[in-house]
Amino acid sequence: MIPGRPVVSSLAACLVLLPLAPPAAAAGGAEAAVGERGTAAAAWVPPLSTRGRYIVDANGDRFKLRSGNWHGASGTWTGSGDPEQDANHHAGENSGRVPLGLDRAPIAEIVAGFREIGLNSVRLPFSNEMIRDTRPVTDAAVAANPHLRGRTPLEVYDAVVAALTAADLAVILNNHTNTTRWCCGVDGNERWNASQSAAAWESDWLFMARRYRANPRVVGADLYNEVRRSVWDDPNWGLGDDHDWFAASQRAGERILAEANPDLLIVVEGINWVGIPVDGFFHERPTLAPVRWLSHTLTASGKLVYSAHFYDYTGPNHSGATGVGETTDPRYRDLTRAELHDVLYRQAMYVAAEAEQHFTAPVWVSEFGVGGRAETGVKQRAWFANFVDYLVQTDADFAYWPLVGWHDDRTGNGWALLHWDRAGGRMGLYDGDDWRAADWTRLVGHAGRTGHVDPVPRWSMLSPDHGDFVRSARMRARPDWDPGARKAACPDGQRLAGLSHTGNRGLCTDTGAAGLWPPSAGYEVVVDERHVPPGGDWASGYTKLQCPPGAFLVGYAVRGAAVSSALCAASGGAFPAGGRTVWFDRGDSRPAGAPGGDFANGHYKGQCAGGEYAAGIAYTGRLGSRKTPDALYCRPLR
After folding, report:
1. Mean pLDDT, rounded, for 609-619
2. How far apart are alpha carbons 487 and 327 in whole angstroms?
3. Which residue has the higher pLDDT, 237 or 21?
């Protein structure tokens, strides 16, 4: 939720708008050059990818996202009144359908300001409506940039992307809204498919990813902003329906990488709000909590980044509303420092903190912010200090909201780090009277982890819950290997490590050995016991789908709950003799510490050790059985 948005009570549908306008700004002077400290100016080589919890550049060096949000192109109109009137725009700041401030300062000056305050990257919001808006922007909207007169909003967006990347700033494209208006209440922007079809949303993403493919410093696709409840429906994480954000983001991310730009990071934000914000009714801000039990697995491993938003006036169960629709739940600013840090960990930061789990990934706090000079609230100021402390302590990637704002006689919205008045005069963070300056300097100046980041073992979840979950690019390019069944396959370079007794989930890894399946080697779909050698019955009385010698499991297929087939990849070599049976039909059987994490919450699971590979699946067809996996045949890698 962006500060100052009108928030709508989900219970009352669109009946009551609850303005959350932050206080106005006060006086100030001139900017300090934080970029000189090296936080923004360090060299980096695109494209970006991930190694465990870190984002790295093409050389494998850590690239920490020190970002800000340059909003405006996705719209500032509040949805009522004449959109040409400034008063009908958020905080009176009419962006004119372009990134805010182009009427007051040249692009080069604005971008230089970002570098001065220590940024190396910018989250750049757009709307789906903006993409197709053929109306030229008004001359007034780009008064300080006359070379942009007569251009469409998308063409102005192009120019902004070019200016940012020319200054060596990384750009993350952010699909902020469906329509070009301010969000985030019940406004038609609640979900990726609230005001448009999911197919149209995906098509727009392919268009945008292709549009900037030739610019290597456009590094990420932030799929959708603050997914939340509409009038009647909650979004969900994994139910397989039209409101399933997990499935929608999984599919869109895969399509972007496969069809448009394989170099982009895919940024998936957690769910921002579910339920009815009225005491006595269920409501909460799930954020990234569901990722612990159901995480994304991309065909292109090393491209997933999760994100979350935090503001002082919201809370783990508080929508941020005031007045009608406000609940008695605590806001983040009401929590003690220890309570706040605990909640932040549980809601989001565990994803980066817990290594070698199926969900382990960078977490980008892609929105946080607070009022500036005129913010005198003790709780608000304490929250910001405590929040910055947490970002520093966890070495988190971040993006402040917003970067650019208006001021008149040194007053205005006040949340931005850089403000311009009508005459082009700049008021900034380091003018000497902005209480946020010390915390900001501490944040952007924190070195954190730098330098080379070694590759780490990958763990990936397979979840053919509602359909195929084939994450192998090689298998996706081949014919259907078990028609009519739901199929799951590990990303290329990984092998199957675990299965659940029920629930159809699987766990993949490359720990101990990577690249076991050479491009020249083939595969086999096993549906019977033809490869079980005489005297090699490792699960007596059970049906065994065993890989041939020198092959290992990389996938499986199910019909309903029953195992249908095993997918075996040829290693092109030989493995040592021997093996063991891991039973999990009556309880969990996983290595000590359970590396990879709980990949099938609430179900029995079996898992081979790190120095092993899975070579077979056993199940029983006896009366009353559902033919679900009961045992794995685990063999040594070397």
Report:
1. 97
2. 44
3. 237
Cα atoms in the Cβ-side hemisphere of radius 13 Å centred on 280: 2
* Residue position matching structure tokens 């120019």: 159
Does the pTM surpass 0.85? The reply is yes
Convert the pLDDT of each residue in 17-64 to its tens digit: 222 233 233 333 333 334 343 344 468 999 999 999 999 999 999 999
Sheet holding 486-489, edge to edge: 469-470, 486-489, 551-559, 562-570, 523-526
Q: Is 114 left (phi over 0), alpha (psi -120 to 50) or beta?
A: alpha
Secondary structure of residue 351 in the 3-state scheme:
helix
Cβ contacts of 579 within 8 Å, gap of 6 or more: 538, 615, 633, 634, 635, 636
E-strand stretches of 15-155: 17-18, 49-51, 54-56, 66-69, 121-127
Look at the block and give the residue holding tokens 């808006």: 133
Question: Which two three-digit tokens encode residue 235?
Answer: 């979004």
Specify whether the CB–CB gap between 606 and 581 falls below 8 A.
no
Q: Are 627 and 561 in contact (CB under 8 A)?
A: yes
Please tell me the least confidently modeled range out of 6-10, 90-94, 188-192, 530-534.
6-10
Q: Which amino acid would we find at residue 510?
A: D
Mark 156-178 as b/e (b = at least 16 C-beta within 10 Å): bbbbbbbbbbebebbbbbbbbbb
CA within 13 Å, CB half, 350? 17
Q: Which amino acid is at 490?
A: C
CA–CA gap between residue 21 and residue 402 (Å, rounded) = 14
The four Cα atoms 607, 608, 610, 611 give a dihedral, to 10 degrees, of 180
Residue pair 419/407 in contact (Cβ under 8 Å)? The answer is yes
Local structure of residue 357 (DSSP, 8 states): B
How is 171-214 classified by DSSP, letter by letter? Answer: EEEEEEESSSS--SSSSS-SSTTSSS-HHHHHHHHHHHHHHTTT
- Cβ distance 221 to 205 under 8 Å? yes
What is the mean pLDDT of the segment spanning 245-260? 98
54: β partners: 51
Q: How far apart are CA 239 and CA 290, in angstroms?
A: 12
Partners of 499 in beta bridges: 506, 606
Contact residues for 185 (Cβ-Cβ < 8 A; gap 6+): 5, 6, 7, 8, 14, 17, 18
Cβ–Cβ under 8 Å, residues 638 and 574: no
Q: How many CA atoms lie within 13 A of 532 on its CB side?
A: 20
CB atoms within 10 A of CB 508: 30
C-alpha distances out from residue 113 to 107, 110, 170, 344, Å: 10, 5, 15, 30
Instruction: For 536-596, list the strands marked E by DSSP.
Output: 543-546, 551-559, 562-570, 580-583
- The token duo for 258 is 């496969």
